[in-house]
Design goal:
Length: 318
Protein backbone atom coordinates (compact mmCIF):
# COMPACT_ATOMS: atom_id res chain seq x y z
CA UNK A 1 0.00 0.00 0.00
CA UNK A 2 1.31 3.42 -0.90
CA UNK A 3 0.15 6.90 0.13
CA UNK A 4 1.20 10.24 -1.35
CA UNK A 5 1.07 13.30 0.92
CA UNK A 6 1.31 16.58 -0.99
CA UNK A 7 3.06 18.46 1.83
CA UNK A 8 4.59 17.71 5.19
CA UNK A 9 1.79 17.44 7.74
CA UNK A 10 2.32 16.65 11.46
CA UNK A 11 4.56 13.65 12.23
CA UNK A 12 1.77 11.66 13.82
CA UNK A 13 0.42 10.89 10.31
CA UNK A 14 3.75 9.37 9.27
CA UNK A 15 3.99 7.36 12.51
CA UNK A 16 0.49 5.91 12.09
CA UNK A 17 0.99 4.96 8.45
CA UNK A 18 4.43 3.51 9.19
CA UNK A 19 3.04 1.30 11.98
CA UNK A 20 0.51 -0.12 9.53
CA UNK A 21 3.27 -0.92 7.04
CA UNK A 22 2.04 1.68 4.54
CA UNK A 23 4.69 3.22 2.31
CA UNK A 24 4.61 7.01 2.38
CA UNK A 25 5.82 9.39 -0.31
CA UNK A 26 5.61 13.06 0.52
CA UNK A 27 6.57 16.52 -0.63
CA UNK A 28 9.35 17.52 1.72
CA UNK A 29 9.65 21.05 0.32
CA UNK A 30 7.64 23.70 2.08
CA UNK A 31 5.65 24.76 -1.00
CA UNK A 32 2.51 23.94 -2.95
CA UNK A 33 3.08 21.39 -5.72
CA UNK A 34 2.18 22.00 -9.36
CA UNK A 35 -0.45 19.83 -11.07
CA UNK A 36 2.29 17.88 -12.84
CA UNK A 37 4.08 17.22 -9.56
CA UNK A 38 0.87 15.94 -7.96
CA UNK A 39 0.29 13.66 -10.96
CA UNK A 40 3.85 12.37 -10.70
CA UNK A 41 3.63 11.83 -6.94
CA UNK A 42 0.32 10.00 -7.14
CA UNK A 43 1.66 7.43 -9.63
CA UNK A 44 1.20 3.92 -8.23
CA UNK A 45 -0.43 5.23 -5.01
CA UNK A 46 -3.56 3.85 -3.39
CA UNK A 47 -4.41 7.01 -1.48
CA UNK A 48 -3.64 10.70 -1.32
CA UNK A 49 -3.55 13.25 1.46
CA UNK A 50 -4.14 16.65 -0.13
CA UNK A 51 -4.32 20.21 1.18
CA UNK A 52 -6.86 22.96 0.58
CA UNK A 53 -4.20 24.68 -1.55
CA UNK A 54 -4.03 21.73 -4.00
CA UNK A 55 -6.49 21.97 -6.87
CA UNK A 56 -7.50 18.39 -7.59
CA UNK A 57 -9.34 18.82 -10.88
CA UNK A 58 -10.59 16.50 -13.63
CA UNK A 59 -7.24 16.60 -15.44
CA UNK A 60 -5.40 15.32 -12.35
CA UNK A 61 -8.09 12.82 -11.33
CA UNK A 62 -8.10 11.25 -14.81
CA UNK A 63 -4.42 10.34 -14.44
CA UNK A 64 -4.98 8.29 -11.26
CA UNK A 65 -4.35 4.61 -11.85
CA UNK A 66 -4.97 3.13 -8.41
CA UNK A 67 -6.10 5.97 -6.13
CA UNK A 68 -9.13 4.82 -4.10
CA UNK A 69 -9.34 7.63 -1.60
CA UNK A 70 -8.39 11.30 -1.34
CA UNK A 71 -8.22 12.48 2.25
CA UNK A 72 -8.29 16.28 2.29
CA UNK A 73 -6.42 17.88 5.19
CA UNK A 74 -9.16 20.52 5.69
CA UNK A 75 -12.84 20.73 6.46
CA UNK A 76 -13.49 22.63 3.20
CA UNK A 77 -13.20 20.56 0.02
CA UNK A 78 -13.89 23.12 -2.71
CA UNK A 79 -10.38 22.37 -4.02
CA UNK A 80 -11.50 18.91 -5.23
CA UNK A 81 -13.79 18.10 -8.16
CA UNK A 82 -16.18 16.00 -6.07
CA UNK A 83 -18.52 15.16 -8.95
CA UNK A 84 -15.67 13.76 -10.98
CA UNK A 85 -14.38 11.73 -8.04
CA UNK A 86 -17.88 10.33 -7.62
CA UNK A 87 -17.97 9.29 -11.28
CA UNK A 88 -14.57 7.60 -10.92
CA UNK A 89 -15.55 5.89 -7.64
CA UNK A 90 -12.85 7.69 -5.72
CA UNK A 91 -13.78 8.34 -2.10
CA UNK A 92 -13.16 11.84 -0.75
CA UNK A 93 -12.94 12.63 2.97
CA UNK A 94 -12.36 15.83 4.93
CA UNK A 95 -11.53 16.75 8.55
CA UNK A 96 -14.68 18.07 10.25
CA UNK A 97 -15.18 18.53 14.02
CA UNK A 98 -11.54 18.37 15.09
CA UNK A 99 -10.87 21.95 13.95
CA UNK A 100 -14.21 23.46 14.93
CA UNK A 101 -13.14 25.12 18.19
CA UNK A 102 -9.75 26.26 16.90
CA UNK A 103 -11.38 27.92 13.89
CA UNK A 104 -14.22 29.47 15.91
CA UNK A 105 -11.68 30.82 18.41
CA UNK A 106 -9.73 32.41 15.59
CA UNK A 107 -12.88 33.94 14.12
CA UNK A 108 -13.74 35.52 17.44
CA UNK A 109 -10.14 36.65 17.97
CA UNK A 110 -10.26 38.43 14.60
CA UNK A 111 -13.51 40.10 15.59
CA UNK A 112 -11.96 41.42 18.80
CA UNK A 113 -8.71 42.34 17.07
CA UNK A 114 -10.49 44.50 14.49
CA UNK A 115 -12.96 45.98 16.98
CA UNK A 116 -10.27 47.01 19.44
CA UNK A 117 -7.48 47.73 16.93
CA UNK A 118 -5.14 45.22 18.56
CA UNK A 119 -2.51 44.92 15.77
CA UNK A 120 -2.49 48.69 15.20
CA UNK A 121 -2.08 49.33 18.92
CA UNK A 122 0.72 46.76 19.15
CA UNK A 123 2.60 48.45 16.28
CA UNK A 124 2.00 51.83 17.92
CA UNK A 125 3.79 50.70 21.10
CA UNK A 126 6.63 48.92 19.28
CA UNK A 127 7.27 51.97 17.11
CA UNK A 128 7.81 54.07 20.24
CA UNK A 129 4.72 56.23 19.67
CA UNK A 130 3.18 55.58 23.09
CA UNK A 131 3.69 58.78 25.07
CA UNK A 132 1.15 58.04 27.81
CA UNK A 133 -2.56 57.52 28.34
CA UNK A 134 -4.70 59.76 26.14
CA UNK A 135 -8.49 60.16 25.95
CA UNK A 136 -8.74 59.82 22.16
CA UNK A 137 -6.02 57.24 21.65
CA UNK A 138 -6.90 54.28 19.37
CA UNK A 139 -10.60 54.22 20.15
CA UNK A 140 -12.35 51.10 18.90
CA UNK A 141 -15.81 49.57 18.81
CA UNK A 142 -17.75 47.96 21.67
CA UNK A 143 -18.38 44.23 21.37
CA UNK A 144 -20.39 43.64 24.55
CA UNK A 145 -24.17 43.55 23.93
CA UNK A 146 -23.79 44.19 20.19
CA UNK A 147 -25.41 42.12 17.43
CA UNK A 148 -23.48 39.22 15.95
CA UNK A 149 -24.63 37.81 12.59
CA UNK A 150 -23.18 34.51 11.41
CA UNK A 151 -23.64 33.39 7.82
CA UNK A 152 -23.13 29.66 7.46
CA UNK A 153 -24.15 28.39 10.87
CA UNK A 154 -22.73 24.88 10.63
CA UNK A 155 -20.34 23.47 13.18
CA UNK A 156 -17.89 26.39 13.13
CA UNK A 157 -20.56 29.07 12.73
CA UNK A 158 -22.52 27.57 15.65
CA UNK A 159 -19.45 27.78 17.83
CA UNK A 160 -18.80 31.39 16.83
CA UNK A 161 -22.37 32.16 17.93
CA UNK A 162 -21.79 30.34 21.21
CA UNK A 163 -18.77 32.54 21.89
CA UNK A 164 -21.03 35.57 21.41
CA UNK A 165 -23.04 34.56 24.48
CA UNK A 166 -20.08 35.36 26.72
CA UNK A 167 -20.20 38.89 25.35
CA UNK A 168 -23.97 39.14 25.86
CA UNK A 169 -24.46 39.58 22.12
CA UNK A 170 -27.74 39.35 20.23
CA UNK A 171 -27.31 36.42 17.89
CA UNK A 172 -28.52 36.20 14.28
CA UNK A 173 -27.73 33.39 11.89
CA UNK A 174 -28.37 32.37 8.32
CA UNK A 175 -28.14 28.88 6.86
CA UNK A 176 -30.04 26.99 4.16
CA UNK A 177 -32.58 25.82 6.73
CA UNK A 178 -33.45 26.94 10.25
CA UNK A 179 -31.54 25.31 13.10
CA UNK A 180 -33.87 24.60 16.01
CA UNK A 181 -30.94 23.62 18.20
CA UNK A 182 -29.18 26.98 17.79
CA UNK A 183 -32.43 28.77 18.56
CA UNK A 184 -33.23 26.70 21.67
CA UNK A 185 -29.74 26.34 23.05
CA UNK A 186 -28.26 29.75 22.23
CA UNK A 187 -31.32 31.90 21.67
CA UNK A 188 -30.08 32.68 18.15
CA UNK A 189 -32.61 33.99 15.60
CA UNK A 190 -32.79 32.98 11.98
CA UNK A 191 -32.50 35.97 9.63
CA UNK A 192 -32.19 36.49 5.89
CA UNK A 193 -28.79 37.58 4.59
CA UNK A 194 -30.22 41.01 3.94
CA UNK A 195 -31.46 41.30 7.54
CA UNK A 196 -28.09 40.14 8.82
CA UNK A 197 -26.40 42.83 6.71
CA UNK A 198 -28.76 45.51 7.98
CA UNK A 199 -28.89 44.57 11.68
CA UNK A 200 -25.48 43.18 12.62
CA UNK A 201 -22.59 45.04 14.18
CA UNK A 202 -20.30 42.09 13.45
CA UNK A 203 -20.80 39.65 10.59
CA UNK A 204 -18.79 36.43 10.58
CA UNK A 205 -18.68 34.35 7.39
CA UNK A 206 -18.41 30.62 7.99
CA UNK A 207 -20.11 29.24 4.90
CA UNK A 208 -18.57 26.67 2.56
CA UNK A 209 -17.59 27.85 -0.92
CA UNK A 210 -19.85 26.59 -3.70
CA UNK A 211 -21.78 27.99 -6.67
CA UNK A 212 -24.38 29.52 -4.33
CA UNK A 213 -21.89 31.25 -2.05
CA UNK A 214 -19.39 32.54 -4.63
CA UNK A 215 -19.30 36.37 -4.23
CA UNK A 216 -22.23 36.16 -1.82
CA UNK A 217 -20.84 39.29 -0.18
CA UNK A 218 -21.30 41.69 -3.05
CA UNK A 219 -21.96 45.40 -3.44
CA UNK A 220 -25.62 45.22 -2.43
CA UNK A 221 -24.79 43.21 0.73
CA UNK A 222 -22.09 45.67 1.76
CA UNK A 223 -24.27 48.70 1.04
CA UNK A 224 -26.86 47.22 3.37
CA UNK A 225 -24.34 46.95 6.22
CA UNK A 226 -24.21 49.51 9.00
CA UNK A 227 -21.51 52.16 8.64
CA UNK A 228 -19.84 51.02 11.85
CA UNK A 229 -20.15 47.28 11.16
CA UNK A 230 -17.22 44.89 10.87
CA UNK A 231 -16.97 41.92 8.48
CA UNK A 232 -14.98 38.82 9.42
CA UNK A 233 -14.18 36.10 6.88
CA UNK A 234 -12.94 32.72 8.13
CA UNK A 235 -14.64 30.79 5.30
CA UNK A 236 -13.14 31.07 1.82
CA UNK A 237 -11.89 34.19 0.06
CA UNK A 238 -14.16 33.78 -2.97
CA UNK A 239 -17.26 34.11 -0.79
CA UNK A 240 -16.48 37.85 -0.80
CA UNK A 241 -16.10 40.06 -3.86
CA UNK A 242 -12.72 41.34 -2.67
CA UNK A 243 -12.62 44.38 -4.99
CA UNK A 244 -15.98 45.56 -3.69
CA UNK A 245 -14.88 45.00 -0.09
CA UNK A 246 -11.67 46.98 -0.59
CA UNK A 247 -13.60 49.90 -2.07
CA UNK A 248 -16.06 49.84 0.83
CA UNK A 249 -13.22 49.84 3.36
CA UNK A 250 -11.34 52.61 1.57
CA UNK A 251 -14.49 54.73 1.38
CA UNK A 252 -15.32 53.93 5.05
CA UNK A 253 -18.70 52.48 4.01
CA UNK A 254 -18.09 49.92 6.76
CA UNK A 255 -15.84 50.20 9.82
CA UNK A 256 -13.46 47.33 9.21
CA UNK A 257 -12.75 43.75 8.25
CA UNK A 258 -10.86 40.78 9.62
CA UNK A 259 -9.72 38.35 6.95
CA UNK A 260 -8.16 34.92 7.32
CA UNK A 261 -8.79 34.06 3.66
CA UNK A 262 -8.41 35.83 0.29
CA UNK A 263 -9.90 35.62 -3.13
CA UNK A 264 -6.64 34.67 -4.88
CA UNK A 265 -4.76 33.08 -2.02
CA UNK A 266 -1.89 33.47 -1.20
CA UNK A 267 -1.99 36.80 -3.01
CA UNK A 268 -3.20 39.63 -0.82
CA UNK A 269 -3.95 42.87 -2.68
CA UNK A 270 -1.62 45.76 -1.83
CA UNK A 271 -4.66 48.03 -1.40
CA UNK A 272 -5.88 45.74 1.37
CA UNK A 273 -2.48 45.74 3.08
CA UNK A 274 -2.43 49.53 3.11
CA UNK A 275 -5.69 49.77 5.07
CA UNK A 276 -5.57 50.39 8.82
CA UNK A 277 -9.14 49.23 9.46
CA UNK A 278 -8.30 45.67 8.44
CA UNK A 279 -6.62 42.77 10.24
CA UNK A 280 -5.04 40.20 7.91
CA UNK A 281 -4.15 36.62 8.82
CA UNK A 282 -2.46 33.92 6.70
CA UNK A 283 -5.33 31.35 6.65
CA UNK A 284 -4.53 30.01 10.10
CA UNK A 285 -8.10 29.23 11.20
CA UNK A 286 -7.32 25.68 12.30
CA UNK A 287 -3.70 26.27 13.20
CA UNK A 288 -3.34 25.03 16.76
CA UNK A 289 -1.00 22.17 17.64
CA UNK A 290 -3.90 19.98 18.71
CA UNK A 291 -6.23 20.70 15.79
CA UNK A 292 -3.51 20.16 13.20
CA UNK A 293 -2.47 16.86 14.87
CA UNK A 294 -6.09 15.72 15.11
CA UNK A 295 -6.64 16.59 11.43
CA UNK A 296 -3.65 14.41 10.54
CA UNK A 297 -5.01 11.50 12.60
CA UNK A 298 -8.43 11.84 10.98
CA UNK A 299 -6.94 11.94 7.48
CA UNK A 300 -4.91 8.81 8.14
CA UNK A 301 -7.79 6.97 9.80
CA UNK A 302 -9.98 7.57 6.73
CA UNK A 303 -7.27 6.08 4.54
CA UNK A 304 -6.73 3.10 6.85
CA UNK A 305 -10.50 2.50 6.97
CA UNK A 306 -10.49 2.04 3.21
CA UNK A 307 -7.14 0.37 2.63
CA UNK A 308 -6.85 -1.82 5.74
CA UNK A 309 -10.06 -2.03 7.75
CA UNK A 310 -12.58 -2.64 4.99
CA UNK A 311 -15.01 0.02 6.25
CA UNK A 312 -16.34 3.35 5.12
CA UNK A 313 -14.88 6.41 6.87
CA UNK A 314 -17.39 8.46 8.87
CA UNK A 315 -16.32 11.74 7.32
CA UNK A 316 -16.90 10.74 3.71
CA UNK A 317 -17.95 13.47 1.27
CA UNK A 318 -18.46 11.11 -1.66
C1 LIG B 1 -10.42 24.33 6.47
O1 LIG B 1 -9.95 23.33 7.03
O2 LIG B 1 -11.15 24.25 5.48
C2 LIG B 1 -10.13 25.67 7.07
O3 LIG B 1 -10.04 26.64 6.10
C3 LIG B 1 -8.90 25.63 7.93
O4 LIG B 1 -8.49 26.85 8.39
Amino acid sequence: MKVFITRRIPDIAFDMLGKEGVEVIFNNEDRVLSSDEIIEGAKGCDALITLLSDTIDKKIIDTFEKVRIISNYAVGYNNIDIEHCRKKNIIVCNTPDVLTHATADLGFSLLLAVARKIPESDSFVREGLFKGWAPRLLRGHDVYSKTLGVIGAGRIGGEVLRRGIGFNMKLLYNTRSKKEQLEKELGACFASKEEIAKRSDFIVLCTPLNDDTFHMIDKSFILNMKKDAILINIARGQVVDEKVLIEALEDKKIAGAGLDVYENEPQVPERLKRLKNVVLLPHTGSSTFKARDDMAVLCVNSILDILKRGKMPQNRIC
